[in-house]
Amino acid sequence: MDALSCLRQATIDGTNVEVKDDRIIFGEHSALLSAKTNIKQDDSSYYTIHAIWFFLKCKDDQFGRYLISARNAKIPTVPRTNKKTLLDYLTGKSDTCDILDASVTLPAADKHADIVNSSTKPETETKEEPQAILEELGVDKVEELRKKRKAKAGLPEDEPQRRSSKHKIAKIEDIINREVSYEDRNSLLRGPKKFTGVLEMLKSGSDKKKDGKDREVKQKKPVSATYDRYNQPARRAEGEEFGINEVGNIVSQTDSQKSSSSKKKKSYTPIIIVPSTTKDDSICMYNVKKFLEEGDFLPVSNFIKSGAPKPTKVAVRKKRESGSVPYKIVDNTNGMTKDDWSKVVACFITGPEWELKRWPAYLEGGPPNVFANMKGFYVCFEDQKLHDNINKWDVTVLKMSRIKPYVNQVNMRSFWEALDLFTFKRRAKDLRL
Questions:
Q1: Residue 423's pLDDT is what?
Q2: Cα distance between residue 288 and residue 329, in whole Å
Q3: Span 282-292, mean pLDDT?
Q4: Do residues 19 and 53 touch, judged by C-beta distance below 8 A?
């Protein structure tokens, strides 16, 4: 009878099953704990008798506690799905179970009495006094036998006899007793070294830093008491260029101020031309600033209905890494000088050719020459048809949306990308971009 059958029969009969050393004992029979059974663990392995016995031992425990105990003991566990069918088989309620492989032939269990008898020996056979052997054989015979043993083991004859373990232990204890401990980990950490030099170095560094700050404060120039935030050269020059009075007061200018304002510096600010129109699908003086700075396209009719006056001077600022750059917006080209036309970098058109005919670039070479000197843009709504001339000219089309603000944001970015690509190749040297 194999080990699993013995365990099943002992469980049915109520016989005590115990584990001793590396064996499991069930009545008259016993087996090694590592003995295999024909209970399948998976497709390629089987449970040991130890795992099945442990499962039976924990059958009344909660399943979670059984899993924890088996894991701590490093014993394979039986899944919850197989618990009932295996218990029914081991307790005799059924003759088979789902995970029993009847095709496997198992070795028979050992008789426990034979194992016990073979493991015990009489004391007279296992232990004899060395002195009795020496007296019986004699010293010469013992020495001869010792030389034969050394020759058989391949050891030289003059090798000193190995000393007993007790003698070795005594020798090691004597060496330890004669050792003197000069330093340990605690004595090394409490070394005689001092860190006063490090502290002095840190202190001197902080003093130098403090002295450097004091010198910087002394070298700074005092702020003028008559500081005027409106009297800044860069902003004043830009305001004069666009005709903006930043002071906004009614105090009359002195002669020196009039003479200085009359001598304007040469402007390098780029110019963008927009059409003078009131169509909702166009960019004009009403909505150009909101669109080019924020990407928000508002129909012109919104401004007209609200009664807002038409701006006469508009400045759009483009944010760059070096700061914001101004662009001057105009819708009336009458009175523009040759120098002003040299600063024009872009134009918004509505489609008819007559709106270009008074421009110097058109007189020199027609529409192709116009868009070779400035970047052209055409604005319309997504559902509108393009003007016939747009397909003939080199202009960028911006299709606005009435209900999708993010589309207008994309159009604003497309405008600046196209304009930067055009101006940086042709006009970067003579304009402030």
A1: 87
A2: 8
A3: 91
A4: yes
